[in-house]
Amino acid sequence: MTTIVFFEPDGTRREVAANPGESAMEVAVRHGVEGVDADCGGVCACATCHGHIDAAFFDRLPTVNDTEDAMLELVEDQRASNSRLLCQIKVGPELDGIVIKLPGVRR
Amino acid sequence: MQHFDVLIVGGGQGGAYAAIQLRQQGFAGTVAIVGRENELPYERPPLSKEYMLGDKDWERLLIRPAAFWHDKAIALLLGLEVTAVDPAARHVTMRDGSCLGYGKLIWATGGQPRRLTCLGAHMEGVHVVRTRGDADAILGQLSGVSRAVIVGGGYIGLEAAAALRKLGKEVTLLEALPRVLARVAGEYVSSFYEAEHCAHGVDLRTSTALRSIEGKERVSGVRLEDGSLIECQMVIVGIGIIPSVEPLLAAGIQGGNGVEVDAFCRTSDDLIYAIGDCAAQANHFAGGAVLRVESVQNANDQAACAVKAIVGEPQAYSATPWFWSNQYDLKLQTVGISSGYDAAILRGDRASRSFSVIYLKAGRLIAIDAINATRDYVQARQLIEKGAMIAPEDLADTSRPLKDLPRL
Ligand SMILES: Cc1cc2nc3c(=O)[nH]c(=O)nc-3n(C[C@H](O)[C@H](O)[C@H](O)COP(=O)(O)OP(=O)(O)OC[C@H]3O[C@@H](n4cnc5c(N)ncnc54)[C@H](O)[C@@H]3O)c2cc1C
Ligand code: FES
Q1: Cβ(B259)–Cβ(B239) under 8 Å?
Q2: Which residues, in sequence order, are CB contacts of B148 under 8 Å at separation 6+?
Q3: Of B321, B270, B252, nearest to B85 (Cα)?
Q4: Is A88 on the interface with B (CB under 8 A)?
Q5: Which residues of B touch A35 (CB under 8 A)?
Q6: Cβ distance B265 to B108 under 8 Å?
Q7: What is the reported pTM?
Q8: What's the half-sphere exposure (Cβ side, CA atoms, 13 Å) at B346?
């Protein structure tokens, strides 16, 4: 089983289990984790699934493609060198224990 | 009579998000959603895309899992339709005659798909795409279909056409106007999508009106105004929606094509809010025109706006409109509202299938349609929010990113 540790915008720690084939966004939504809205349902069109990935795992992720990199510009003020859109991260066993901090969605 | 401090009518995108926001903003009162569909709140966009294609199964469309609503103490009263509102008594009545009291009411009912009125319009095999039930009905009958006729060249019609082609069906698409997407996009975008659908084997006919739907018990064809017949086993109608606002209008709340709301999503009754596809609001991005915006963005942002007012932190609605539509391998992203533009600048080469069209009004950027051009989409957003003025020849220069272009 693959586990993800989310830190919600207010700092609450949520350790939740991922199903095979799910994206990190889907895991968060399915567990009602605060700080992921996923307006577009995971098609990389909204940037409301932004997370900061713990350094130990960031380099293990497949690289950011052009679309995601461009979409991250939408959250420029919250963006860091370890920013990703969680709908673009498929969670497999190699990411077991990954830690993701959620900066929160602005409306 | 049961009473809820906030009662939300409609468990779709806006209604669900309003409930989520209420709890996120710390609202501690009682909250319920009354919804006509007997389904947990779900996302509609995949119905004409990944769900129709079989790429995404049902659970993955849910806005939140079942346990979430329970954990957040949001009562889901599903399979119930509100038929009347009594603003003086502060209660709503359901079709079965039962009543629910409210402190504040959030009306989030979306709309009903507009139906054809021609002969045969209600025959078996004529479909719309608004709900899970609609999509399942289409999918359930697809095996017996070799050709489908799609009526309406808006986003939903075009997406359905793309999905059915991918599923190996013959597709004819009829559009009464001279071009597809006529209501929502400029001519460059329309002609590009027409060419793409033709290249993917869609028999696309613009300026084409339908006379009747033919068949005995089931659809067997579509008769056009010119008398010709297109044989088909399925018809999908995508010609817009009629906002579901009858009970509110009957209660004396102001509106017509939608319920009118102020900048805080409040109707003419102080205790009743309206959000999403059914709400008509003055929109800054349309020069202050009062309009309904049919998008996930608008449903969610209006939900957040109504909730802020309800929890005592009112903030006037000012959210930037954005929208997406995926067809084949084309990702269209829109910011702003292009209606009323006086110049359209093509940025990039349509043949490369990655370009954008920037709409100007009196020299100011008001909207963009970006096709496989996410960077333009993102960078134009800020320019549109500021109503920036940039020379057309600069906008067309793809060697420089939009954000680096000089402002006039
Ligand atoms: C096929 C399809 C594809 C789409 N694609 C996109 C897209 O790619 N991008 C995008 O931004 N938007 C898209 N949209 C639009 C988007 O889904 C809508 O704008 C959004 O769902 C509007 O939310 P809403 O809450 O206003 O209405 P809805 O989501 O329609 O919810 C309204 C709910 O209220 C219920 N209801 C109605 N009347 C009553 C009543 N009297 N009592 C109780 N319940 C009632 C309805 O049954 C419904 O469940 C698409 C829509 C469809 C149908
Ligand atoms: S869910 Fe919309 S970009 Fe990730």
Answers
A1: no
A2: B164, B169, B170, B171, B172, B232, B233, B234, B235, B236
A3: B252
A4: no
A5: none
A6: no
A7: 0.97
A8: 14
